Amino acid sequence: WISDEHRYGLISTVRRCWTLKGHCPTAPVQMKYQWGYVYGAAEVLLGAVEFLYLPTVSLDNSRRFLEQVVATDPEAIHIIFWDQAGFHQKPDDPHLPKQVRVIPLPPYSPELNAMEKVWDAVKGHVSNAVWETLDAMESAITEVLKPFWEFPERVGSLLGDSWLTRGVSIFLELRKAII
Fold first, then answer.
1. DSSP, res 35
2. Dihedral angle of Cα 71, 59, 164, 153, to the nearest 10 degrees
3. How much is the pLDDT for 148?
4. Predicted model pTM
5. Cβ contact 53:36 at 8 Å
6. Which among 30, 41, 48, 119 is least surrounded, fewest beta carbons within 10 Å?
7. Which DSSP state fits 43?
8. Sequence-ordered list of residues with C-beta below 8 angstroms from that of 20, at least 6 positions apart, any chain
9. What average pLDDT does this structure show over 53-65?
10. pLDDT category, 52, cuts 50, 70, 90?
11. % pLDDT > 90, the chain
């Protein structure tokens, strides 16, 4: 699994947009200080995804998300790649679910995490708009996320031919040779 979380909130995000030459686009802005987080993980081999909306990030919430990932296949060992944020369990954390192995990504390297592409699509969908409530914003975010759990091949296109997919392929080939 490759995992990450995304913060969203009612403070408007303004992003670039296309327009006709000579036209100056406008975007509505509001400054409401409410936010939430969505945790996400994509399974590299089968293309499964898991998402969880939570009000904040913490070690307890990260553990709760890992338990959700484990529930997808309780008998399997789940290898989780994620960054080294302070609210993520470390590989030697005794509170990790027993079916989870954590591999930390290097610091300051979001380009290694394919989930960032999902969050970029989310930002593109919810930017340049005013959202009255977090529930309305979560509904819009869910519209972006839904195709990933409905069509596992979308996860494969998200991961593409990356360091992760190549590494998993090599690992599986070596494993076949040993067995």
1. E
2. 40
3. 86
4. 0.83
5. yes
6. 30
7. -
8. none
9. 94
10. very high
11. 38
Strand order in the sheet with 78-82: 49-54, 35-42, 2-9, 78-82, 100-104
For the chain, the distance separating the N- and C-terminal CA atoms, rounded to the nearest angstrom, is 23
Q: Give the span between the Cα atoms of 125 and 179, in whole angstroms.
A: 46
Mean pLDDT across 55-72: 94
Per the listing, tokens 């839904």 go with 146
- Residue 141: pLDDT above 90? yes
DSSP string, 45-72: TT--EEEEEESS--HHHHHHHHHHHHHT
Q: Quick check: 141 and 125 in contact, CB under 8 A?
A: yes
DSSP output for 82-136: E---TTSPPTT-TTS-TTEEEEEPPTT-GGG-THHHHHHHHHHHHTTS--S-HHH
